[in-house]
Amino acid sequence: MIYATGEGQTSPSGADGQLANGPFYPTPVLPVQVNIGGISAEVLYAGAAPSLVAGVMQLNVRIPADAPSGDVPVEIVAGTTHSQPGVTIAVK
Q1: What is the pTM of this model?
Q2: For the segment 46-72, what is each residue's pLDDT rounded down to a tens digit?
Q3: How far apart are the C-alpha atoms of 69 and 55, rounded to whole Å?
């Protein structure tokens, strides 16, 4: 599970200060991809983080079986916008 911000427009649109309380959660309009160690990871869910404020995106991602071990770089791509460099995840 990864938490992020900056996913862009959602459907349905969120409201500032509103908490994400189901049963339906806003999801990004743009496609979301995650790369772990330069390898495309399966994104199981990308959308509002339940019970958190609008603008926080939760990503449920499956770490690729062939991902390298150690502190591995993570990149999130929403549409054509890439996350900042230097973010890592520990893979064992």
Answers
A1: 0.90
A2: 999 999 998 999 999 999 999 999 999
A3: 31
Q: Could you tell me how far CA 74 lies from the centroid of its own chain?
A: 10
Beta strand pairing status for 27-28 and 70-78?
unpaired
Residue range 14-42, pLDDT digits in tens = 777 889 888 889 999 999 999 999 999 99
Q: How many CB atoms lie within 10 A of CB 22?
A: 8
Burial class (CB in 10 A: 0-12, 13-18, 19+), 80: exposed
User: Which residue, chain included where needed, has tokens 């449920």?
Assistant: 60
Tell me, what amino acid is at 43? V
